[in-house]
Design brief:
The chain has a single domain (7-245), classed as TIM Barrel (Alpha-Beta Barrel). The protein has 11 helices and 10 strands. The longest helix is centred in the C-terminal third of the chain and has 15 residues, at 206-220. α1 packs across α11 (237-245) and α9 runs parallel beside α10 (206-220). The chain is an alpha/beta fold. An 8-stranded parallel barrel has the order 1-4-5-6-7-8-9-10, surrounded by 8 helices. It has a two-stranded antiparallel ribbon with strand order 2-3.
Length: 258
């Protein structure tokens, strides 16, 4: 069994692989400016910021090229309106974005309509052929691990670069059980297709992040704990990361360990 990570190591991995996120309905340019400033903190920078498509150009101007700009498509409802999803995606591409986080039509999948799922994902992939594509499964709504696995298979077949758990807008977001089902599908993908995993929604502390870091390490190997293969989508996690790295301890545990 892999020994547990010490808090500092977990915090450093989480920081390097963090998608610092702001997807509030009332977000303003001032909010995005603050987000981009926080993304370049005293302990190092995050992997990406994740925003609404309308803020992509601003974020790209404010950030160094070493920090990716991600934006959402078909978000958060995950409907079957392919034209809308493609419109979102093209806006991200045109504004200079690097990554698209698209919501899989999870209600359609629950209803057995895999054709609608494939059509939307294929169209989004075609609209952004050179961008990193993260497919949000909304695992809390899919619930069943077999359905989560099926969503994972369809997403990988459509060209997903990452499987992402959740929008963070539903009552149940990322869970270790869902992550394990997704990571098992990734692990069974041919080695030439190095698909990544992103835990998103409800990951608020370094202890939360450590559970997903451990799962990824066990199923995909410790070498996969890099931004190209592993991400955590969060807004408040950075506070806890900085507390740990500053030596102030975590909000979720006594100073010294998990």
């Amino acid at each position: 069994m892999t020994p547990p990570l010490d808090p500092g190591t977990a915090a450093r991995i989480a920081l390097a692989c963090l998608d610092l996120t702001s997807l509030n309905d009332a977000d303003t340019e001032a909010d995005i400016e603050r987000l981009c400033t926080r993304a370049q903190g005293p302990h190092g920078h995050v992997a990406a910021v994740c925003v609404w498509p309308r803020f992509v150009a601003q974020a790209r101007r404010l950030l160094p090229e070493t920090i990716a700009v991600a934006a959402v498509a078909n978000f958060p409802a995950g409907g079957t309106d392919t034209a809308r999803a493609v419109e979102d995606t093209r806006a991200i591409v045109a504004a200079g974005g690097n990554e698209v986080d698209v919501v899989l039509p999870y209600a359609a999948l629950r209803a057995g309509d895999e054709t609608a799922v494939r059509a939307l994902l294929d169209a989004v992939r075609a609209a952004a052929p050179s961008l990193t594509l993260k497919v949000i499964l909304e695992t809390g709504a899919l619930v069943d691990e077999a359905l989560i696995a099926r969503a994972s298979v369809l997403s990988i077949a459509a060209g997903a670069d990452f499987l992402k758990t959740s929008t963070g807008k539903t009552p149940v977001s990322a869970t270790p059980a869902a992550a394990q089902a997704m990571l098992a599908c990734i692990a069974s993908t041919p080695a030439a297709r190095a698909v990544g995993f992103k835990a998103s929604g409800g990951v608020r502390t370094v202890a939360d992040a450590a559970s997903y870091i451990a799962l990824q390490s066990q199923l995909l190997g410790p070498e996969s704990l890099v931004p190209r293969r592993f991400r955590i989508g969060a807004s408040s996690l950075l506070d806890d990361i900085e507390a740990v790295l500053d030596g102030r301890g975590s909000a979720a545990m006594p100073k010294g360990g998990y």
